[in-house]
Write a structure and sequence with these properties.
The complex is a heterodimer of chains A (about 270) and B (about 250). Chain A is built from seven helices and ten strands. Chain A has helices at about 50-55, 100-105, 115-125, 140-155, 170-190, 200-205, 235-260, and strands spanning about 10-20, 20-30, 35-40, 65-70, 70, 85, 160-165, 190-195, 210-215, 220-225. Chain A is globular, with a radius of gyration of 19 Å. Chain B is mostly helical. Classes of the chains: A alpha/beta (about 270), B mainly alpha (about 250).
Chain lengths: ~270, ~250
């Protein structure tokens, strides 16, 4: 996992995505440097999930270019890098044990079988789940289940991690712990992370950069110039959070206005 | 379990109480009925008829599942299939089982095949509906998860779709069994020279209530055995991962 040797950056240029009667992404440009932690912040309906669907190769119906580490993704094709994905809910297969859920991801990955055991040991230990490997998902708490889906995402040795509001369904205390754990893991592995959220302070705490989306495209970008490891109660961090929050609210209001003006296609 | 046993005892007691009030030609008591049943078993005529009926039940159920399960799954997953087929499933459900039996015996002849076709086609719509409703509840978000993790279409069907559909297949198997039993008896009454249905009809014509109840009791006992001992165990083993089955 040499973070300097390979380029795991993401470059999005002029991305346009239309649904019938509605342009969700209108020429979006986005750069994520290799190893960077970027948070995407935006009101609901601004196209965050649409963007992730396109970047992860689930939605091939778009215009514009997407490059991973300099290699272009063919529309309708798969991303040229390995993607790890965290959803808002754990999305575990309930009939498989924790370990078998990770195996499910490994079986469909390029990771050679000989390394599975070591990888699983490593990430189960890192997330504190080693005692729960034989538990079924319904026997795990919400936080543990989300940790397990983090193990699953990391086990396939992704170059890039996509995270779609992964902590929004958890109570604040659990979410805080998981954020700290995530930053630890990120520091150790140097993955490129694109993290979607609608929580300004979460975005500020986690990201190198916060990209605020409004309807169709980027409204503003804020670099979080606070040294790591960061502290929740850091005054400087709180100041940046306030700026991010204000930008986010502006973006949300702009999106509202845009919606009420474009009454031709109310959704 | 205790509650189940208690309610069964209560019903038997009520049966006993009623039988004291009514003449034996109308309602023989539980003890007399059991005696008749035991005599039948000792005579050796029971197993022949029971096996004939069980064979038809198995054949009919297999046919009903073979038709109903794929139709139900396709309807649950595909909106186009749902819109095209739902009227026909409803029509098929509405046709009385007697009609299927008469048509099968006329078109195919008074034979085993006709009996099984009649049983299978009568119960297939109920199974299809059962599965259709169930498949609508499966978690499609897991398909997206599997696609993100690069699972092929075949892997998704086998490892994400099938485990989710299996509980509904099992449920429709139990549900289907309940229907198939009843139809089998009717079909036997109409066009077969043996089986529990034939026996029921025979003793009905002779107005022998003791025999009618004895065959009914036998039937119920065998059915309960299959349901409680075989199917519930199988289900418990298959779905150990489900929280509600874990005891």
């Amino acid at each position: 996992m040499s973070r300097e040797a390979t380029d795991n950056g993401i470059l999005v240029e002029g991305l346009i995505k239309e649904f019938p009667g509605q342009r969700v992404l209108d020429g979006l440009d986005l750069t994520v440097a290799s190893g960077e932690f970027v948070c995407l912040l935006g009101p609901s309906g601004c196209g965050k999930s649409t963007l992730l669907n396109i970047l992860s190769g689930l939605d091939g119906d778009y215009r514009g270019t997407v490059r991973f580490g300099g290699r272009a993704m063919a529309p309708g094709g798969k991303p040229p890098l390995t993607i790890g994905y965290l959803f808002q809910e754990p999305r575990l297969l309930p009939w498989l044990t924790a370990e078998r859920n990770v195996d499910f991801a490994l079986e469909n990955s390029r990771v050679p079988r000989a390394r599975w055991a070591a990888i699983k040991d490593h990430y189960f230990a890192l997330t504190g789940l080693q005692a729960f490997r034989h538990y079924y998902p319904h026997q795990l708490s919400g936080g543990m289940a989300q940790r397990l889906s983090l193990v699953r995402a990391l086990a396939i040795e992704p170059d890039v991690l996509f995270m779609d509001e992964p902590f929004s369904g958890l109570d604040e205390l659990t979410a805080r712990r998981l954020r700290v754990d995530l930053l630890d893991i990120w520091r150790q592995t140097g993955k490129t992370i694109l993290f979607i959220t609608h929580n300004s302070y979460e975005a500020t705490f986690l990201g190198d950069r916060v990209v605020v989306l409004s309807r169709g495209g980027i409204r503003n970008q804020i670099t979080v110039d606070v040294p790591r490891p960061r502290d929740y109660d850091d005054a400087a961090l709180f100041q940046v959070g306030k700026t991010v929050s204000a930008t986010f609210i502006e973006a949300a209001e702009a999106a509202e206005r845009g919606r009420s003006e474009g009454t031709a296609h109310p959704d | 379990m205790l509650l189940k046993l208690g309610s069964m005892l209560a019903v038997v007691a009520a049966w006993f109480g009623l039988s004291l009030l009514l003449p034996a030609t109308v309602l023989p008591g539980p003890w007399q009925t059991l005696n008749v049943l035991i005599e039948n078993v000792v005579d050796g005529q029971v197993h022949q008829h029971l096996l004939a009926t069980l064979g038809r039940v198995a054949g009919g159920l297999a046919l009903a599942m073979a038709v109903g399960v794929p139709v139900g799954i396709v309807m649950g997953l595909n909106r186009f299939a749902e819109k095209t087929l739902d009227v026909w499933v409803m029509v098929a459900l509405t046709v009385p089982s007697l009609c299927y039996a008469i048509l099968a015996f006329i078109w195919i002849g008074l034979n085993e095949t006709a009996a099984i076709v009649a049983i299978g086609l009568t119960s297939a719509p109920s199974i299809a509906i059962n599965l259709w409703e169930g498949v609508k509840n499966i978690d499609t978000r897991l398909f997206k998860m599997a696609r993100v993790f690069n699972a092929s279409r075949w892997v998704i069907v086998r490892r994400v779709l099938f485990p989710q559909v299996l509980p509904y297949i099992m449920a429709s198997l139990r549900f289907g069994l309940g229907i198939v039993w009843k139809i089998t008896v009717l079909v036997e009454l109409l066009g077969r020279p043996d089986g529990v249905g034939f026996q029921l009809f025979y003793w009905y014509q002779l107005a022998d209530m003791g025999q009618v109840l004895a065959w009914t009791l036998l039937f119920t006992l065998v059915m309960l055995f299959i349901e409680l001992v075989i199917l519930q165990r199988l289900e418990r083993r298959l779905f150990a991962w489900r929280p509600e089955v874990r005891l």
